[in-house]
Amino acid sequence: MIKEYLIDNLIKNKDFPDWMIEGRNAALNKLVSLRHNTKYGLGMYPFFSPPDLGHLEKDIDLPITISAPDNVHIVSLTEALCIPYYQNILKEYYHLPFVPEKLPSTAYFLKAFIPSGYIIHVPKGFHDDSPITIDIQANKNLQLGYLLILADEDCQVSFIEKNQNTNPSTYLAALATNIIAQDNAKVEYTRLHKSVAPHFVLQSTTIGNNAEVTFLDANQGSTLAQADIRTTLVGEKSRVKHMHMIRLEKEQKYDVFSAIHHQGSHSHSEMLSKTILNDSSHAIYRGLTNINQDAMDAVASQKEDTLLLGEKAKIDTVPMLEIQNDLVQAHHSTAITHINAEQLFYLQSRGLSTPESKEIIMQGFLAPVWERISCKAARAILLS
User: Fold this and answer.
1) CB-side exposure of 61: number of CA atoms within 13 Å?
2) Where is the SUF system FeS cluster assembly SufBD core domain (predicted)?
3) According to the model, what pLDDT value does residue 7 have?
């Protein structure tokens, strides 16, 4: 009875309007009734069991620290719901339908119980070479958070999100993010995560006319993680890059779902994933590109490369294309490789040790990803 009372209070938070409560209730109902195939295809989710509602507590706010220039508006979720402009934005995007609609159980859990969050509003015409930084440091049993990033017309902005957790007793840390790139906006977003406890990321991006978003998901060795990254290219000549740079070792596990939905004509998408697996680590990568009947002259590519270093390391790759018109260019490819003995010998013959030689080879393998990032601060972190 106490837990039921807590669940009811978390969903029907007094600060939330009716439309938000309805969406949260719908997510909870979906969570309770959800059944997933855990063996194969786009719906495989073998790493995360359905979230246990018994872990819910009164205080589940995920600590989020944001550093940004003064002319970038940072508004808490509670404050935003009192401002008509922001409430209308939230109403449109907070419960945005996903393509495809099926989500992992962790996503419905997050959508039902998000307690707090922030809007980061980048104004029209904003240009600044310094990145906006988002630091997330989970420190409790269960913590959930929300971000909505609104990039107005003609702005150019970069973000660095550092998602870390050093508390191994944490049950789950999870973040939902909406990114809205309005017409002619250019957004670069780099997410760095390294956690000793389970964490989950749910991201939905909407891109307007002639706008561009470059997104890099860099897993630097999390114990157990899952990312669900989805983008809708709404506008004409809209562009997106989904990139993943993954390095796992020991028994670390990472599950990635990356989906791009083309709606606008002349839209362009690129998926690029580079994965290095050592020891007994295991990664799952599922990529879906959907081009609808109105997205004439769309161009789309998927490429997933894996470097296997451990004899027991494992990669599952599921690339998919769904194309509903003939006036498109689309392709996908996957490759699994090992360290080339000749490359290793060459570097060792120049006086480098075996570990040094392997590191150089691995950096070369990852280079096609980080070279696409223009933010100098993000590149410096990736190469450190």
Assistant:
1) 10
2) 137-365
3) 77
Q: Where in 59-211 does DSSP place strands (E)?
A: 64-67, 73-76, 117-122, 132-138, 142-151, 156-165, 172-181, 186-195, 199-207
Query: How far apart are alpha carbons 116 and 118 in whole angstroms?
Result: 7
DSSP 195: E
Task: Fill in the amino acid letter for 200.
Answer: F
What proportion of the chain, given as a percentage, has pLDDT over 90?
63
Residue 362 maps to a domain: no
- Please tell me the number of Cα atoms within 13 Å of 148 on its side-chain side: 26
Can you tell me whether residue 19 is helix, strand or coil? helix
Residue 99: inside a domain: yes
- Amino acid identity of residue 301, one-letter, is S
This model's pTM is above 0.85:
yes
pLDDT in tens, 261-279: 999 999 999 999 999 999 9
H or E element that contains 320: strand 314-323
Total structural domains within the chain: 1
For residue 101, which amino acid is it? E
Nearest Cα to 240, choosing from 306, 292, 302? 302
Cβ neighbours, 10 Å, residue 148: 23
Please check whether residue 219 is in contact with residue 249, taking contact to mean a CB–CB distance below 8 angstroms.
Answer: no
Q: Please give the residue range of the domain that contains residue 33.
A: 2-342
At 384, list the tokens.
Answer: 């450190």
pLDDT in tens, 208-233: 999 999 999 998 888 888 999 999 99
Whether 366 maps to a domain, the answer reads: no
The maximal CA–CA distance of the chain, rounded, in angstroms, is: 69
Question: Is residue 183 within 8 Å of residue 153, measured between CB atoms?
Answer: yes
